[in-house]
Amino acid sequence: MGLLRNLLVTSLLLISSLSLVYGHAGKYPLVVSTWPFIDAVRAGWQAAQNGFSAVDSVVEGCSACEVLRCDVGPGGSPDENGETTLDALVMDGTTTEVGAVAAMRYVKDGIRAAKLVMRHTKHTLLVGEKASAFAISMGLPGPTNLSSPESIEKWIKWKDNGCEPNYWKNVLPANSCGPYHPKDPPSSVEGACSMGSGPYHPKDLSSSVEGACSMGSKDPIASSSPHISHKNHDTISMAVIDQMGHIAVGTSTNGATFKIPGRLPVFFLRFLVFHIVSSNFWSFCMASIALEFHASCVLFEESIARRISVSWDGVHYEMLVPRSSWIIELNFRVGDGPIAGSSAYADTEVGACGATGDGDVMMRFLPCYQVVESMRLGMSPKLAAKDAILRIARKYPDFVGAIFAVDKTGIHAGACHGWTFQYSVRSPGMEDVEVFTVLP
């Protein structure tokens, strides 16, 4: 009897110790992702099932999507100038550490670059050329051209269609590829607000603060969402709960198709994306970028060929290339993909959220931060996701976006506005990835 009792106690202690080592056995890991990115979810699940941390599992899942080009990565959505760039983010929900890259060029591993920022710097976000140089210096392959024949063809058709649709507003000329200028000239007084003909007295003003202006209309605000759809907006946002119950999120995206590039105060540089051109000259321009020389590759129209004037560190070069080549400037626009709290957010004590849609609008509300905080206050994932979407829709009724929410126990839900949303899940109770559909 004593021997049996000892065996029972030993067995209980062993089970208890296994629970400490393997975490929440039977409950985790759990992987949730925007859209039916089944292979990416499988990759994240396999990593977590093999004992990878939540952060590493998210990186494996998002990286699989980049490599497979399921909807993001090299060859993805071109911007207004025809170039493909990458935005990515990874967040550790246990430590709240975040690593992100934005408008990154020449490096195809967006999510791995974001992880390097988190692991090897005290920064949160690196942008543009410096993000590319950092990633390459830390061992990622590059520089490489991120455009593809498909992305270039898509861009050429868009240019042939008068650069429509686009993301400009209140500019002239309309239905054109620009260059654009404001439709209404700015006021001659800096910061002045139009308040009618006057004269005005203090009682007419809504504020006694010097320089106060009219608060404007309370009518709903138009957004860029009519141009956003699953077909022209590629984003994967993924959450993983690992075997220990730790949570992480990651995002990788090329951003909205034909987005306006936004200028960054780095160094002036123009470069060429070639359809048919000398590989030596391509290497020359790419090397000047990687080595951070002050270089410019400037293109001039000719009747049969295009003459390229290149200045590199004070030395001038010229060459002719076929007219099938074109010019793209150092311009960037960044959406909400690399913004913690907007595209994704995680807190191991609460849960996680991932988002997709009109990032220009959504980043103004930090919907994923809102979701996690709502769950912290007791809301279910379903109500928290719906509440965050409604907060945006009240201001922007025509916006398009979606959210998934998952709490620390593994309960998940989604909410959307303006489109039908799908998200993918893999848990121990499933034989394979399952796709859930959410109606607006």
UniProtKB/TrEMBL annotation:
Key word Signal present: yes
Signal sequence annotation: 1-23
UniProt keyword annotation of Isomerase present: no
Enzyme class: hydrolase
Sorted UniProt keywords: Autocatalytic cleavage, Hydrolase, Protease, Signal
Catalytic reaction(s) noted: Cleavage of a beta-linked Asp residue from the N-terminus of a polypeptide
E.C. number: 3.4.19.5
Active site: 235 (nucleophile)
Subunit and partners: Heterotetramer of two alpha and two beta chains arranged as a dimer of alpha/beta heterodimers.
Family: Belongs to the Ntn-hydrolase family.
Protein's recorded name: beta-aspartyl-peptidase
